[in-house]
Amino acid sequence: QVQLVESGGGLVQAGGSLRLSCVVSGSIFSFNVMGWYRQGPGKQRELVASLFRGGMTNYADSVKGRFTISRDNAKNTLYLQMNSLKPEDTAVYYCKAGAGFGSWGQGTQVTVSS
To answer: Is the separation of the CB atoms in 80 and 97 below 8 Å?
Structure first.
């Protein structure tokens, strides 16, 4: 069973940056798609960014130009670089491997203060 462990969350002021990491127990390249999702207070979980095996990326409109998804195949790690953070980015961020139900990490809290 694949295990995913996120890290890198924390408290940051608006305008700041954070980099989230997601270490996967198996080969990250075996998954056709990997993604970052988030769930803010009182909100539904939403897709933030996805990265396909061939390198294509997809971003939510709310984070385009500020967030960058990437991977290191050798380290079996998925990243999310978050710049110019806003209070509305406050959420628990989850890493997902695979399509459909996929495999999920436990989440990491990101809090952006105004």
So the answer is: no
What are 44-102's pLDDT values in tens digits? 999 999 999 999 999 999 999 999 999 999 999 999 999 999 999 999 999 999 998 99
Q: Please give the Cα distance from 8 to 65 (Å, whole number).
A: 20
**Cβ proximity of 89 and 82 under 8 Å:** yes
For residues 103 and 2, the answer to whether their CB atoms sit within 8 Å is yes
- The encoded tokens of residue 61 equal 């409109």
As a whole number of angstroms, the distance between CA 14 and CA 52 comes to 30
For residue 48, is it left (φ>0), alpha (ψ between -120 and 50) or beta?
A: alpha
